[in-house]
Amino acid sequence: MEPYIQISKINDFIFCPQSVYLHTIYDNFDAATYHDEPQKEGKLNHENIDNGKYSTSAHILQGMPVYSHHYNLAGKIDLFDREKKMLIERKTSIKHIYDGYKYQLYAQYFCLKDMGYDVERLRLYSLKNNKQYDIPLPGDDETRKFEKIIQRIRRFDVLKNVSCVSEAKCARCIYSNLCHLSGATTRTDQELLNGKK
């Protein structure tokens, strides 16, 4: 049986596959060692959900662990409104709906479906500007794209995937001080990593 993929790693992988590996290096460190302000703010924003204090309504599931045996996924949801049948993922600030946000929400959706919940609506919620973004349920095409991402995560080999995603992403990455690919990776660096002298 293949190991479970953490739902939160899907967004990270889409941002940069290398970041998922680099995150594991910091697993035993205090988060303050490597978190920048956006990560600290995001953690604070999730505390009420993680502690079950966001809502006292019985029909609102918050911070609930979810899993999918079909996709071998596990993680937590932010909010699921059982009356509205709506899954809500909260982000500190949404300026653009990135694929990583969408596929992380799809993973939560598939987990809830596998667990027997009836989910009819998906929503991203931006805390800073109080904006809501309805996301269509995944159709056949989006489901295939989601499955390809899951396959790419499973097949990822940190030693074989040694290219910089983009200099702009590297500049914003909290793992840049650990990453040999950070910034512009030279051809010589890649050749050395591939065993060429």
Order of helices and strands: EHHHEEEEEHEEHHH
Oligomer: single chain
* Structural class computed from helices and strand pairing: alpha/beta
Task: Determine Rg (CA atoms, Å).
Answer: 18 Å
User: Roughly what percent helix?
Assistant: 25-40%
- Outline the biggest β-sheet: 5 strands, mixed
* Number of domain units: 2
GO molecular function: exonuclease activity; iron-sulfur cluster binding; metal ion binding
EC number: 3.1.12.1
InterPro entries: Cas4_PREFRAN (IPR027616), CRISPR-assoc_prot_Cas4 (IPR013343), Dna2/Cas4_DUF83 (IPR022765), PDDEXK-like_dom_sf (IPR011604)
Cofactor: iron-sulfur cluster; Mg(2+); Mn(2+)
Give a quick set of tags describing it.
single chain; 197 residues; alpha/beta; Lambda Exonuclease, Chain A; 2 domains; 7 helices; 17% strand; globular; disordered C terminus
Outline the secondary-structure elements.
Elements: E1 5-6, H1 8-15, H2 17-25, H3 37-50, E2 60-62, E3 65-68, E4 73-76, E5 79-81, E6 86-91, H4 99-114, E7 121-126, E8 131-135, H5 140-155, H6 167-172, H7 187-193
Parallel strand pairs: 1-4, 6-7
Antiparallel strand pairs: 2-5, 3-4, 5-6, 7-8
